[in-house]
Amino acid sequence: MADRFYVPYLGTSPSVRLEGDEAHHLSRVSRVRLGDRVQLFDGSGVQCEAVVERVGKREVLLSVLHRETADRELPFPFHLGSALPKGDRLQFLIEKATELGVTRFVPLVHDRGTQQPRGANPDRMRRWVIEASKQCGRNVLMEISDPVQWEGFLDFFPRGMIRLIAHPSPVRTGETWEMGEKGRTEKRGGFGKGHVRFGPSDDPLAASGGQLGAARQPGMVVAVGPEGGLTEREVARARERGWRLIGLGPRILRVETAALALVAMLTLGDESIHLSG
Ligand code: SAH
Asked: DSSP characters for 67-96?
């Protein structure tokens, strides 16, 4: 893929000016030269091919050759709510969630949550989203919402969506691990792959004949708890509102592992995986 650069607004003008970080990146880091071709995107879904016309100290001027809409989004909205892991692990989570196509990331505030980690300011997180989008070819930026309290988050998403909470309380049953509350195994109405099982509730999947593909519209939302885990109160609040619990196997995963495993598992369906040879 050609070198990609982000501009806040591409519009329809035949020329585009890059400033700030992106101009610096183009001229100093990528060593792009006059006359080189690059790709520009503005986070609205549009990308364009452009040629470098002038490289100044603080700005770069390009002329647009060709504009196109290149859709690399998931076929349904996917929201990820998560406590923020600390340090590099937060950056890792934001970058990988962007690469995997998450529509919106919601930082969650929990009963057992510590303070928001240092360095977790929205501007920095948005910068990571842009960098990951440049790298992976995404043309729509993952939205980063303001931090939300657990119950506000639960109430925000309507029942028609698939709404899942990752919660580790594995109960060994034969060859599979199923999720249940405190030792109660839930077998009814679940669907899943391998050792992953969803507990039952009023269930958008049931309405769609259990087909994950059809049930993904009007969207999915998944939530991951903090390092200290979700409290019983938080789990109960979610169940009352019809959210379902999902187990991810018998090991306790770190926040970012649980979040990314869920995103990958639920978005990379048969249609997006190609085997050859
Ligand atoms: N000590 C906590 C572990 C928290 S791990 C506890 O026992 O609950 C942080 C978060 O990652 C959890 O709140 C949960 O949302 C998710 N998670 C980690 N391992 C998981 C697993 N095996 N299944 C489902 N969710 C898991």
From this structure: EEE---S-SS-EEEEEPPPPTHHHHHHHHH
What's the CA gap between 202 and 220, in Å, rounded?
A: 15
Number of helices (H), then strands (E), belonging to the chain: the values are: 8, 14
pTM comes to: 0.85
- pLDDT tens track for 80-134: 999 999 889 999 999 999 999 999 999 999 888 766 767 778 899 999 999 999 9
Angle between helices 255-267 and 88-100 (to 10 degrees): 0
What residue type is assigned to position 121 of the chain?
N
Ligand 1 binding pocket includes 229 (Cβ within 6 Å):
yes
Protein residue with its CA nearest to atom 11 in ligand 1 = 255
- Check pocket membership of 166 for ligand 1, CB cut-off 6 A: yes
Amino acid found at 49: E
Burial 123-142 (b: 16+ CB within 10 A, else e): eebbebbbbbbbebebbbbb
Is residue 59 a contact partner of residue 71, using CB atoms and an 8 Å limit? Answer: no
Q: What is the pLDDT of residues 229-273, one digit of tens each?
A: 999 999 999 999 999 999 999 999 999 999 999 999 999 875 666
**Mind giving me the DSSP string for 141-159?**
PPEEPPPEEHHHHHHHS-T
Question: What CA–CA distances, in Å, run from 56 to 39, 59, 255?
Answer: 19, 5, 43
Count of other CB atoms within 10 angstroms of residue 62: 26
